[in-house]
Amino acid sequence: MRASRDVWDTMVPVKPFLLISTRPEDEAAQGEYDAMLRFTGLAPDQVVYSQLDRAPLPSVDLDGLSGIIVGGSPYSTSDPDDRKPADQLRAERELDQLLDRVVPADFPFFGACYGVGTLGVHQGAVVDRTYPEPVSAITVTLTDEGLRDPLIRAAGLPDSFDAFVGHKEAVHTLSEDAVLLATGTAAPVQMFRIGSNMYATQFHPELDVAGIVQRIHIYRENGYFDPAGMDELIDTVSTARVDHAHTLLRAFVTRYAR
């Protein structure tokens, strides 16, 4: 899918964005990839795609990229290492090594859901299972810092908006260098910023109704909700309106494309 001309005519040529996936399920990985293209407005040739659960991260030249986007994952960073599969341990190690370079450079980074665990843990946040949220649409509320944040302002987000969530772990305590941008009722950290250009959300800005329904089917037995209530859950999420959340991805790409 090509980005709309009104966004990209002033930006070509664009250095690609690195999109990192850690979803071992083929259908989930493909669905996330398609959604990221749709809501960022990026074309396939404007993305370097790394499925980190399947192969090592290729050599990353930050000077050759516009930014980095990390999607969600069934991985939980707070699980004990002896319970993590080998592909998860390698992925976490390589993401940590990448963040060792990204953070000092304040390089554009956007992590959706799993990005909270990766960027948060790298910076010293406490991520645990205190604030899980079942698959649902929740209300996200911007903080005063969030209302002033340039990316959020560029996205045109209202003070409160709905977004899809579904996670077993969340930030319990942010690192001292993090700026809390958005909160929620069940999970108090819904979005934060490190430095000026590195962002992470607990909610999923890439998910629309079709996307969340697909993941409900794929992850039915993964403990995100009671499988016996799947049909009722699908009926509930199908009425959600989460359009505002999607604007964050386009705003990130528009702000950092170079």
TrEMBL record:
* CDD domains reported for this sequence: GATase1_1
Where is the secretion signal located? none
Q: Which Pfam families match?
A: GATase (PF00117)
The cellular component terms of Gene Ontology attached to this UniProt record, alphabetical and capped at eight, are: cytosol
InterPro entries from the UniProt entry: ChyE-like, Class_I_gatase-like, GATASE
Q: Which residues form the Glutamine amidotransferase domain?
A: 63-207
PANTHER family, sorted? GLUTAMINE AMIDOTRANSFERASE YLR126C-RELATED (PTHR42695:SF5)
Name used for this protein in its record: Glutamine amidotransferase domain-containing protein
Native source organism of the sequence:
Acidipropionibacterium virtanenii
